[in-house]
Write a structure and sequence with these properties.
2 copies of one chain form a homodimer. Chain A contains 9 helices and no strands. Chain A is mainly alpha-helical. Chain A has a single domain, classed as Tetracycline Repressor, domain 2 (Orthogonal Bundle). In chain A, α6 packs across α7 and α7 crosses α8. Chains A and B meet through α6, α7, α8 and α9 of A and α6, α7, α8 and α9 of B. The first copy, chain A, binds a DNA duplex through α3.
DNA sequence: CCGCATATTGACGCATCAGTCAACCACCGG
DNA sequence: CCGGTGGTTGACTGATGCGTCAATATGCGG
């Protein structure tokens, strides 16, 4: 070995830049040169690590997913009561801080891109599957603890997740009638209905 | 006038073609030539009616919205009971038949495009606003008739609509764990909870 | 049947980028 | 200090596709 490898950090640096650019201007408008600039490097270097723009974006989508899981791991372990865990979990998806907003933007782009790309559908399947597993587990724990009403946990998780996705989209769209606070109100109401 | 105008029908023919192409391959991959071919005309003619590709797509998004409203108008008038009206209304959004699936695809593209285009955000505001108005009205009628539980109709409408949006997206993404039947099951369950 | 407005066409010009490449640089081991 | 691997660069190329345009067609009124 003639040199200590910088591959890992350079790849992440470029991927993160790609996510930021996608969030700002959208996949459709994204140029490889934009990503290079944001990552403070050149298009040549971007292509040194990613053969095609498509490869780069797939890696970015995957990274965005893993980061989201990672960020929430501590949260799931820091609330003993299922009731609190559910609220904290749902709360963490409110598009409030820049990091979460960026993650949502990238997800939205993934969805639309995946409509016509089976590879990305598989990635979405993992994202959604993991999300549903976590949510269903919290609900099941809550039911066992007598904190939540009865009902198929998976079905309830799907209902909650679907609602969060749809509401977040409207918030991101700068809808006059849907903002983070209203979204929280709707989520709180639904969770309360689950508890009572 | 030297000739009877064909503008109206030609515009619609092109717009409809644009929606079909967007649904099939996505906005990002859509070429003006694709739309021309699908509309059985030439790129020159497309540009005769729409100055830019952007204009064409904005018109297409708007048309998609108006058609969706139009299609559901009879449905809303043919059910005397709010209970039945809600079920029929929600049912009509299940991505089952090709027309509905295409409409959903176009909506999804609109959302993501609108994330970076204020003009389209305004259009989304109309779509979403109208949808929420209709849904909230049904819920209010149902509450007045003693068929639905109490609760802010607008908040409940937002919850339902958000959920439908999110679930439909997953169905469209050919998710293994979310298909039309499961989506219907989730919707039915939530509506039942609203009724009891 | 002529004149004119409306409509249609597709080849072309021009700008935009993804991806390539040849030159060059940085670091480490020997 | 030299050789080699790993890493970086940005100018360039080839392809692509939007929008233009000049030529042409179509139908109606007079």
């Amino acid at each position: 070995m003639a040199r200590t490898s910088v591959e890992a950090e350079r790849r992440e640096q470029i991927i993160q830049a790609a996510c930021e650019v996608v969030s700002e201007i959208g996949f459709k408008s994204l140029r490889v040169a934009d990503v290079a600039k944001r990552a403070q490097t050149s298009t040549g270097t971007v292509h040194y690590y990613f053969d095609t723009k498509r490869d780069l974006m797939h890696a970015a989508f995957e990274w965005n997913f893993n980061q989201s899981l990672e960020r929430r791991r501590p949260l799931l372990e820091s609330h003993a009561e299922p009731r609190d865990r559910l609220r904290a979990f749902v709360d963490s998806y409110l598009p409030r801080d820049p990091v979460t907003v960026t993650a949502w933007h990238v997800w939205a782009e993934l969805w639309v891109e995946a409509l016509h790309e089976p590879d990305l559908q598989e990635l979405n399947e993992n994202v959604y599957g993991e999300w549903r597993r976590v949510m269903a587990a919290i609900i099941r724990d809550g039911q066992d603890a007598g904190q939540f009403r009865d009902g198929d946990p998976v079905l309830l998780a799907n209902a909650l997740i679907g609602m969060i996705d749809g509401l977040a989209l409207q918030v991101l769209l700068a809808s006059h009638s849907m903002n983070v606070d209203r979204m929280k109100a709707v989520c709180d109401h639904v969770i309360a209905a689950l508890e009572s």
